[in-house]
Amino acid sequence: MQNTQTKILDILINSEDYVSGEEISEKLGISRQAVSKSVHQLKEQGFTIDSVKSKGHRLISRTENLCRPAVERLLAGNPLISDVVIVDSVDSTNNYAKKLARDGGEYGVVVAAREQTAGKGRLGRKWISQKNEFIPFSLLLKPDIAPFQVAGITPIAGLAVCEALRENLGLDCKIKWPNDIIVNNKKLVGILTEMSAEFDAVDFIVVGVGINVDQRRFPEEIRQKATSVFIETNKTTDKNLILSQAVKHLTDEFLKSNYRLNSENLARYKALCATLGREVSFYRGGRRLCAQAVDITETGELMVKAADGTVSLINSGEVTTQGIY
Ligand code: BTN
What we know:
The protein is α+β, with helices and mostly antiparallel strands.
């Protein structure tokens, strides 16, 4: 799946010294003009490359903003990924991925954007962010599961992204049921899974993930509720790395579990779930009820126990968790 820019980036990253245009053209079996054009395109995407006539090209610094060659290089060999699409600006990466599927495109595509202008959240909410501060991405997949099993995809996705961020950024991320990822009780990541299905078969699914990365400060109305990687670590992080690590964890988890919640991944989910053990409130039959979150079922529902001992299951909708935004 690697394009020429990705291959040249790989050569430059693996070389401490200048690499001549001739050497690159021989290695890749392309013309010197094609090498110059791709080097120019890499520079346009934010890579600083020193090009000296007598010596060739040397990579000085990489861009931390999303760009296809960097992501493609980091996802090389991933068995579930067939293509990486990075766009400058899009209404919603989920919409873009769904259009790819409807136009008959292949599955296994990662679509990410430097800017998302009409991001969609759960329960019809909007997700808006400034360019290059946030990573919106969607994974277009065709799992061999029945429509009722799609409910398991969302917790598996939440678990995978949570573990990716814990492992790679050292953040103490937790999961707020069903699939928000939080740090210090504030939201860092939101996930929206959409699907297209016939009566008994899933056509495709789109797993959409939004990660707050470089926001320094949030608007007053969400300051108590939202956080970013920058706010939690006090440093900027390469968004290409964060995206690739999240995709790697997602695809590893989907492959390992065959897209199904099972006792093993459910146990890991529960261990990271910050909702369990807390008081939650939710609407049932038009009334607001309070109960304690006691378990997560094998189908991903939240089991709650009211003060009078009544146990009920919640499978979607809005749940307010005491102590978490
Ligand atoms: C939520 O917490 O309400 C879910 C938010 C999901 C946002 C992501 S950003 C990438 C993808 N594209 C969208 O339009 N939405 C999801």
